[in-house]
Amino acid sequence: MRIEKYSLGIGDRFGRAGLAQLRAIQLAERAGVVVVPVWNKSFREHSLIGTRPDDVRAEADAAVRRGGWKHAYHVDADHVGLKTVDGFLAASDFYTLDVADFIGQPAEDGAIDAFVRDMAPFRGTLRIPGVDAAFQVDDAVLEKIGRTYLRAVMEAGRTYRHVAAAKGEGTFIAEVSTDEATEPQLPFELFFILGALAREKVPVQTIAPKFSGKFLKGIDYVGDRQAFARELDADLAVVAHAVSVFGLPSSLKISVHTGSDKLSLYPIIHRALGKHGAGLHLKTAGTTWLEEVIGVALSGPRGLAAAKQVYQGALPRFDELVKPYATVVEIDRDRLPTAATVESWSAEDLVTRLRHDQGHRQYDPNLRQFVHVAFRVAAEMGDAWTGPLEAAAEVAGRCVTENLFDRHIRPLFLDP
Residue 323 in contact with residue 274, Cβ under 8 Å? Predict the structure, then answer.
């Protein structure tokens, strides 16, 4: 099984937006570009909402059947490791191997020495086609890479082999994420990480590197966009070179995690993909949940009350809700509106603050990030949330489709 050139990880907290998400992808198809949907939901999200991986498979299959989608699609076991992967084996054909906890941990005795020995042919001046800079590689450099990443790569290998033993080689797609390292990977580090994965015989098809800047939940990129452009350009060149040098799958491509709503980066990514003729996997998830909140608020008094209830229920639980996402949100708690203020809002008041329209004077990135992590409160509301969500299916679905197509797919894959 090979991942297609362009793919979009689509998340759906409550399992009701599958068809609306697919419609956005079908708009791209009509415009001449096939973007493959990858439904994803992590173990943590399943635990918080009370769903199972089989529910995601059922949603994806139903959306494809109802929507008449004729191309490939996948279901991602998102951010799994050996402790959590078994529950995803039946439902998933795409596995994001989460090895963040193992980055920087010591590898097994002798493993680093063996890695340095195997990478010895690359000692000296390393030049990667398409990357301007040359890199000086010696045993100390290789040992440092081994100390930082080898244990994580070996863990990815263990998880991959566990899945392969259950499902069979070649029947699923493997993604490896190193985006939760503390520092961005330099191009030559990414090259040797891919070399280490090849040593582990992991046929990785998407790799999620750590870029500089901040990829925060639900809001635009925070950082130096030109630095990001240089990093992405180099990483795309590294991936192409690693495929030929290490014999990795020709479908190998970059994956951008926490990629939704990085609106200022999409034109940069679009140009880089065109320059290199490269593919891309972009993960989105919470942006659909936020559009559902917007749609519910717009659907009428009952929906507006439910949307307010989510926020008002979340506010006193700020620390609890933010803690799991502490590294990917930056919320100024003092600037969040009070429960009483939100109670006084009209639907337009709420929507203009929550919708990702940075040109609107009322847009509130603190509110948007906080509602992003507040889905647990909605899950605990039960029918008090899912009832209004179902009643708002038409308007919420329209919000989801327009957001994914206009703000994400179009600038990434269609517009220059």
Answer: no
CA–CA distance, 266 with 29 (Å, rounded to integer): 18
3-state secondary structure of 370: helix
Residue 242: helix, strand or coil by DSSP?
Answer: helix
Residue ranges of the alpha helices (H) in 146-220?
151-167, 187-199
What is the distance between the alpha carbons of residues 232 and 122, in angstroms, rounded to a whole number? Answer: 23
In terms of CATH architecture, what is 6-102+153-286+409-414? Alpha-Beta Barrel (3.20)
**CB of 183 within 8 A of CB of 210?**
yes
The domain locations on the chain are 6-102+153-286+409-414, 287-404
H or E segment to which residue 254 belongs:
strand 253-256
Q: Indicate the helix (H) or strand (E) that contains 232.
A: helix 225-246
**Distance between CA atoms of 285 and 39, rounded to whole angstroms?**
9
pLDDT, tens digit, 9 for 90 and up, residues 328-342? 999 999 999 999 999
Residue 142: Cβ-neighbour burial (10 angstroms; 0-12, 13-18, 19+) = buried
- pLDDT tens per residue, range 226-281: 999 999 999 999 999 999 999 999 999 999 999 999 999 999 999 999 999 999 99
